[in-house]
């Protein structure tokens, strides 16, 4: 039998519906246990996803010696505590984005995992989609000319559900944490550099715990290239990224959550248009496989350990700018 990474899931969050089946469909892993602070919820999740073991506390799961790695889909304010506790228990960690509440927390988590000798990865599944490498090849080929800017959007309307954990400021709620992190991460990855400054404007809603329900931002990158983005939890669904060059542009209609009916991306160049739909992939499964191979030393992590710290640094600046209505230098 091929080598398998035994996974445990800490938390019965809704995102498990995408991640758990993807791990189970991978060639490298199997989910053998799930935990919730509510035993009945843990049992229900185990039955739903055909997971053999369940626990009524996170501590119990971490004591399970069969488990090699844990997936943490908990609310943002719990990421640091349970990542560090998992690392101290000798478990590798795949933690949902954003990794932490700020860059300092993220650095603490990275350091703790390094000290424990375990792998830590932030669950930015979109980066595992094979089309991203193809897009970078198109950019490097010069087909769209010199890069001039990026434009990203990730919005949805969940405002009616006032009990949503995303509306708890003290839990790391808000649209920048939840979906704005995606275009920020994508721009950093595509440009291969870090922004120099951030300027943002946000709608902080008293109806939703005071969190940012919408945010529009500008990130200044080296070379006078900028990312303009908007994110929100109180707007129609959008999920796109556009990369603009002097001679053309690349449009990615399902940039972070691909739709099988859409092309992977569309290239406009010198008055011509072509669609690229070469990649059919479950990015969550690819994420699980890459993580397992990195644990076994068969492959490098897709993102270096400092990447989530750097992304949080930008998120910190965006939120600070929105609150202070000022340009924040990085």
Commentary on this structure:
Residues 134-251 form the GFO/IDH/MocA-like oxidoreductase domain. Belongs to the Gfo/Idh/MocA family. Residues 5-122 form the Gfo/Idh/MocA-like oxidoreductase N-terminal domain. This is Gfo/Idh/MocA family oxidoreductase. The structure is a single chain. The protein is an alpha/beta fold and 330 residues long. The protein has two domains: 5-125 and 286-299, NAD(P)-binding Rossmann-like Domain (Rossmann fold); 126-280 and 311-329, Dihydrodipicolinate Reductase, domain 2 (2-Layer Sandwich). The protein has nine helices and 15 strands. The strands form two sheets. It has a nine-stranded mixed beta sheet. α2 (39-49) links the parallel β2 (29-35) and β3.
Topology:
Blueprint: E1 5-10, H1 16-24, E2 29-35, H2 39-49, E3 53-55, H3 58-62, E4 69-72, H4 79-88, E5 92-95, H5 103-116, E6 120-122, H6 131-141, E7 147-157, H7 175-191, E8 197-204, E9 212-221, E10 225-232, E11 234-245, E12 248-252, E13 265-269, E14 272-276, H8 283-295, H9 307-324, E15 328-329
Parallel strand pairs: 1-2, 1-4, 2-3, 4-5, 5-6, 7-10
Antiparallel strand pairs: 7-11, 8-9, 8-15, 9-10, 11-12, 12-13, 13-14
Helix pairs in contact: 1-8, 4-5, 5-9, 7-9
Name given to the CATH homologous superfamily of the largest domain: Dihydrodipicolinate Reductase, domain 2
Percent of residues in helical segments? 25-40%
Could you tell me the mean pLDDT?
96
Global Rg: 20 Å
Write down the domain tally.
2
Task: State which percent range the strand residues make up.
Answer: 25-35%
Structural class of the helix and strand makeup? alpha/beta
Along the chain, the helix and strand elements come as EHEHEHEHEHEHEHEEEEEEEHHE
Biggest pleated-sheet summary: 9 strands, mixed
Number of helices: 9
Q: What is the terminal-to-terminal distance?
A: 49 Å
Describe the global form.
globular
Number of strands: 15
Pfam family, one: GFO_IDH_MocA
Protein name: Gfo/Idh/MocA family oxidoreductase
Domain GFO/IDH/MocA-like oxidoreductase: 134-251
Family: Belongs to the Gfo/Idh/MocA family.
